[in-house]
Structure of Ferredoxin:
Amino acid sequence: MPTIKFVNEKKTVEVPEGANLREEAFKAGVEVYWGPHKVLHCPGLGTCTSCKMNIVKGEDNVAPQSMWEKFWMFLNPLSFFARLGQEKQIRSACQTKVQGDIEVETQPGVNWHGERFWG
């Protein structure tokens, strides 16, 4: 069975193959949302991108991004800038299916001034 390691929370959980990253985070007691989204939970349809996570290791062990996920990540300015140069690593947890072992960082910040932003 694949494992998800939540780096910030120092938690590791085993999940069935094809499991939804957002649902498994909730089951493990991991806070997926940031800021006002902690109160205004999205239903998990991929439209708000508030559950974005940074896949630190194992980005090839998740299902490829759908056009729906790419569209909403592009449309949301905060998610768009957070993804620059990390298109494969920054994912919406609600749209991510786990197929193997991964390590994720919840609530990744936006680097407005460093190499990642301009490079």
Remarks:
- The first strand starts at residue 3 and ends at 6.
- The chain has a mean pLDDT of 83.
